[in-house]
Amino acid sequence: MHCPFAFPPAGLVLAALVLVAPFVLHCQSSTMPDAPPDAAPSFDEPFRPQFHYTPPRHWMNDPNGLVYHEGTYHLFHQYNPEGNTWGHMSWYHATSRDLVHWTHRGVAIPEEGNEMIFSGSAVVDPRNTAGFGSQSDDAPIVAIYTSNYFLPGDSINQAQSLAYSPDGGATWTKYEGNPVLDHPDAEFRDPNVFWYAPGQKWVMAVALSEQRIIQFYESPDLKTWTHLSDFGPVGSTEGIWECPALFRVPAEGTDRTHWVLSVDVGSGAVAGGSGSQYFVGTFDGATFAPDAAHLDDAPHWADYGPDFYAAIPWNNVPASDGRALWLGWMNNWTYAEDIPTAPWRSAQTVPRSLSLRDRNGRLQLVQHPVEELHALRTDPVRLGTRTIEETVIPLADSGLSGRTLELRATFVPEDAEAVGLHVHAGADEQTRIGFDARTDSVFVDRTRSGAVDFQADFAARNTAPLTPTDGRVTLHVLVDRSSVEVFANGGARVLTHRLFPDPASDGVALFAQGGSATLLSLDAWTLRSAWGNQ
Ligand code: FRU
Q1: Could you report the per-residue pLDDT of 184-202, keeping only the tens digit for each?
Q2: Which of 130, 200, 497, 507 is the most buried (most CB within 10 A)?
């Protein structure tokens, strides 16, 4: 059943959910969730991702405050401590030593009074510039987030605030001088802060969401901020702008890095609804200037699937590691509150490492799942070269099936119109992932992927432009119980999709359509549960 109140665009969510919440509660979707809403979390629910981060229960949206500190990766996220839809926004905290296994730490920064805790970032402050350090040697971690204040008369104001932890993230205190940065425009949010070493200062990127502008500010101490410059509107501007991040990304095959500004759009993204665009350019400590060639063919999408939003990079990753790492919210504001999971809702993507690849003089964002995920691989299967005649070839007899898999297949399309893989294949459902030679594109088709009727736009086929490299197409696919992430041709194109298949649909198949194609090789692994279920 179409439920008009259950999927407002992100911007409207902020104020409007308060108004529509009573209606949301009365809207029933025809798809039942995979567990009763009040069930104890087992981490074995039919749609529970096994190697993606989820909170034990309740609603989650954007990743927040990604920061590395003393051997620990911190992941905070938008969280409703009281229910399975958006509301009472607070920061929940999880930690990991390996980016694969996560320990839930509970709510770190709670909603209080008329102030919700919206998205933001976290930094380590080894110079104790803000003065939040204790006597111990531990450098304080400082969170910079948006205070969303409800004002009399149902209006809101958004301003930037601080909370700090002197003990490696175990305890958090809101700064008594909050907020530290306000603006006359009420929709002013999602501060992303990093240490700009050449200027020995903090730099913040923050969105004037309705104006489609990213502002840059500088500070010596995280408490006093001075405006530097504005960027936008440019690129994709139909939807409101949220969750910016400015960070350095290594260029493949060089020892250089370039500045990337990611800006999320609440609607009008490439796969419909919300999504993530990026700009490559220069930053001189005050102004971000996109490369002219890059701007010519904007917008550029980080992910061509519908379920990638609000990604931010990990701050403070050691130089000895050198990676640019991020993850995104694996959902879409179009249907975020309707996806049929319980007692939790939403997952984060796997952590991904980023690089830039030169393509015809333009730098293009490339993503790979982090190598740490290899630790979950088991039961390898390798298939050698074979011809796929215009047909579907199930691979159960080759020992390949499952609901949590990593697949890496290289195809030569030959004269086929399309070639690729079916995953989560069952009696009358499958998710099709392939290369379409008629349009030179990689696609994910979830129209018959399982439960799709909880929202009108969910059953879709999404594409990303892709030309074969030396006549070949490689699809690197992560299959979890309720998602697929496709990294095509070495991460040049990425598509991320949530799926809600029948748990019995664990088949994998090869297909070719409208001609025959060659599979050069297929390597596959079962991925063990990071939550200890397998
Ligand atoms: C993006 C967003 C942010 C905001 C947060 C509120 O998904 O709308 O702009 O800070 O979610 O939960």
Answers
A1: 999 999 999 999 999 999 9
A2: 497
